[in-house]
Design goal:
The protein is of the alpha/beta class. The chain contains 14 helices and 21 strands. It has helices spanning about 15-25, 55-75, 85-90, 95-100, 115-125, 135-140, 170-175, 185-195, 220-230, 250-260, 275-280, 285-300, 320-330, 360-385; strands spanning about 5-10, 30-35, 40-45, 80-85, 105, 130, 155, 160, 180, 200-205, 215, 220, 235-240, 265, 305-310, 335-340, 390-395, 400-405, 410-415, 425-435, 440.
């Protein structure tokens, strides 16, 4: 009998990738995906621990699911509940203690063992917790799982974990040390994706440009991996995220100039525009180092668009130091960026600091920063009007005979189908800018 699984995904692109692979692992057990909790036989919360009170939100959701599970039990229906991801890794058995309705708790490195854990739960008649760090075994286990691909663009995890230990971040504790998948394993997965119609891959890693996977003749850099991926028939566009300034190597910058399949878009977080704050964050780079990278990447690829991450209100940040962040944003000119108020992550060094910035000041700073970023995004989008971009067509639009695709700069583009189909990479002339997208028209090259 076909069963239904609902996987609710929180957080980063890597969690999106992990959720898709969980579906692959469960498919041979007879589970089809559903988006309705009412018809789900199995509910998995794939959690993120980056935001403040992330665990509290998970427990709130679990309370609702437990009530639903108990109601179903009175009708003789079973419902499994699992907590996966970084909250599962961080909280472990505490989740079971606080919510008796949970059947499985597992971290981001052990979901490949889902069938085994489910069997263990059934045989033992009690909840199972599995939070070991076995990254290599995870990817070996996933290699044999058939992938269900529903898009012409796909994520592909190549690196996990972090050795940087920024003082605000929980990733080293929830994802473990940096680990790079072997080149051959990544190429095999990419070929499978291409065979299923994927034309664009986004390479994922907590520090993706720290990639150093075994390539047969020693470690391969991210630039080398990109070169090999670009040789796979069917893969036409390559992206990568998230990068760290400390790992932005010369060969990777050069690859942006020489590899046509590497998209002209770079997400490179700086977090703060002040050196003292960067040191307190343990970022390991200065503002001048970051700006030097920006200069070099723009010389290598003049049409590149830049994105970044910013944290405002880090403990001890003064108004003058925040102004330095605004100056960096003004000097760089971002096409897009993500900005957040600092929020303490339990167990991180910054959470123990006594000089926390008042919430009112954080809110005010965030509003000023986001206003500047929105202005820059609007300026960049407006500059695209009148230009023609190769757009990868990904899905139908809301209107009849309309398609939606992505520009090389990750912008959503709406256009009349004009005989085009999903999967095409077509020259599209940009005609107008909307609140959250561009609109264009097929402009065949003659």
């Amino acid at each position: 009998m076909t069963k239904k699984v609902l996987i609710k995904t929180y957080g980063c692109q890597m969690n999106v990738y992990d959720s898709s692979r969980m579906r692959d692992v469960l498919a041979p057990l007879g589970y089809d995906e559903t988006t309705s909790v009412d018809e789900a036989d199995f509910v998995i919360l794939n959690t993120c621990h980056i935001r403040e009170k992330a665990a509290d939100k998970v427990y709130s959701e679990l309370g609702k699911l437990r009530d639903m599970k108990e109601a179903r039990a009175t009708d003789g229906r079973e419902m499994l509940i699992a907590v996966a991801g970084c909250v599962g890794q961080a909280e472990g058995g505490e989740i079971i203690k606080r919510n008796k309705g949970v059947d499985l708790v597992f971290g981001p490195q052990t979901y490949h063992r889902l069938p085994e854990l489910m069997k263990q739960r059934a045989e033992q008649g009690r909840a199972v917790v599995e939070t070991e760090f076995q990254v290599e075994r995870k990817f070996e286990g996933l290699a044999s799982a058939p992938q269900a691909i529903g898009s012409v663009a796909s994520f592909l995890t190549i690196q996990e974990g972090c050795d940087k230990f920024c003082t605000f971040c929980v990733v080293p504790y929830t994802r473990g040390a940096e680990f790079s998948r072997p080149v051959a394993q990544i190429l095999e997965e990419a070929r499978k994706l291409a065979a299923k119609g994927v034309r664009e891959v986004t390479l994922l890693g907590q520090n993706v440009n720290a990639y150093r996977g075994e390539g047969g003749n020693g470690p391969e850099s991210l630039a080398g991996l990109v070169t090999r991926l670009s040789q796979i028939s069917g893969i036409e566009r390559i992206r990568y995220v998230t990068s760290h300034p400390r790992d932005m190597s010369d060969d990777l910058i050069a690859a942006h100039a020489s590899n046509e399949k590497l998209m002209p878009y770079l997400h490179l977080p700086i977090q703060s525009g002040n050196d003292r704050v960067l040191k307190a964050m343990n970022r390991g780079h200065s503002v001048s180092h970051y700006m030097n990278i920006i200069d070099r990447i723009r010389k290598a690829r003049p049409d590149i668009a830049l994105s970044g991450d910013f944290i405002v209100g880090f403990p001890g940040e003064t108004e003058e130091e925040f102004d330095d962040t605004l100056k960096v944003v003004a000097d760089v000119g971002y096409a897009s960026a993500y900005s957040f108020k600092y929020s303490p992550r339990p167990g991180t060094p910054a959470a123990e600091k006594t000089n926390q910035v008042p919430e009112k000041a954080k809110n005010e700073r965030l509003a000023r920063l986001q206003s500047l970023i929105l202005q820059q995004t609007a300026t960049f989008n407006a500059s695209c009007v009148g230009k023609t971009f190769p757009v990868l067509l990904e899905k139908p639009g809301r209107q009849q005979d309309q398609l939606i695709g992505r520009s090389p700069y990750l912008q959503s583009v709406h256009l009349p189908s004009d005989g085009l189909k999903i999967g095409d990479i077509a020259p599209i002339s940009i005609k107008a800018v909307g609140p959250n997208s561009l609109s264009g028209q097929y402009s065949p090259i003659t």
